[in-house]
User: Which sequence fits this backbone?
């Protein structure tokens, strides 16, 4: 990290708080020293762009009270589903209301074989292209996460190459590309400057689990998060690092009161060591 560079700001996802109010989640996150928040849950429920104006305003006031910018609004949109454009437009409007620069989407499912795969990928690209004018007008970008059939960064890059706009980019989740046997250098080569958000989590293989992986505290697994951070910093990544502790989906993992302070402490130590070694 050069003298002119500062360490990336660190946010947390409300996915860590399935049983807490947004006020509690953001107050705790701020007290632990986080710089921002990624909204996936609001008061324990998935973000709903159809929420009434008064509820939207309440969310904005709650987050502002904790002095935490909303770094991303996370949807469940899958671009390969039938006509997700209206929902995507609603999320872009919602993110704009909350002064967030990013809406996270998933790519969705892709067939294994051509020509069906190419057709589905092209349809996903058309959804993104159709959303660009609104995204640009609102100043909200769309980030396609390395997830589901797009877990490999090469697939996300294939889609992004079809939509050459600064309003569309990638959300690099540390876990899923590694599951696809990709090292961070390959992911950075694929996504590079189109990376809009970096989500970090750690895990280790566990054959007893249905998906073959157990989420663990940062540094206790095998996901090369530190290597990921080094590449982001060396590449001049200007965005956020967001801790995605998936307590909502994996209730057996540690409570947020344990996991989130631990992640922040480890991330800050690693970033400090990188700065000292630059």
Assistant:
């Amino acid at each position: 990290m050069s003298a002119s560079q500062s360490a990336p700001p660190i946010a947390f996802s409300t996915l860590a708080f399935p049983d807490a109010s947004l006020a509690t989640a953001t107050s705790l996150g701020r007290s632990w020293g986080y710089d921002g928040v990624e909204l996936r849950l609001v008061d324990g429920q998935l973000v709903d762009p159809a929420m009434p104006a008064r509820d939207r305003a309440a969310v904005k006031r709650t987050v502002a009270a904790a002095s935490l910018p909303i770094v991303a609004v996370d949807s469940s949109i899958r671009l390969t589903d039938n006509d997700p454009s209206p929902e995507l437009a609603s999320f872009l409007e919602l993110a704009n209301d909350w002064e967030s620069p990013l809406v996270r989407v998933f790519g969705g499912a892709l067939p294994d074989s051509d020509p069906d795969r190419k057709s589905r990928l092209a349809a996903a690209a058309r959804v993104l292209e159709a959303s660009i004018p609104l995204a640009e007008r609102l100043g909200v970008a769309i980030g396609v996460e390395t997830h589901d059939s797009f877990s490999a960064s090469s697939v996300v890059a294939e889609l992004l190459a079809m939509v050459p706009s600064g309003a569309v980019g990638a959300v690099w989740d540390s876990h899923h590309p590694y599951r696809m046997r990709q090292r961070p250098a390959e992911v950075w080569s694929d996504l590079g400057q189109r990376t809009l958000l970096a989500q970090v989590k750690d895990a280790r293989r566990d054959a007893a689990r249905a998906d073959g992986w157990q989420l663990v505290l940062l540094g206790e697994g095998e996901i090369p998060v530190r290597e990921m951070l080094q590449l982001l910093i060396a590449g001049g990544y200007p965005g956020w690092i967001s801790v995605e502790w998936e307590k909502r989906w994996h209730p057996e993992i540690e409570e947020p009161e344990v996991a989130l302070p631990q992640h922040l402490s480890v991330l800050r130590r690693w970033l400090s060591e990188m700065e000292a070694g630059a």
Residues 116-138 form the longest helix (23 residues). The radius of gyration is 18 Å. The chain has one domain: 10-277. The mean pLDDT is 96.
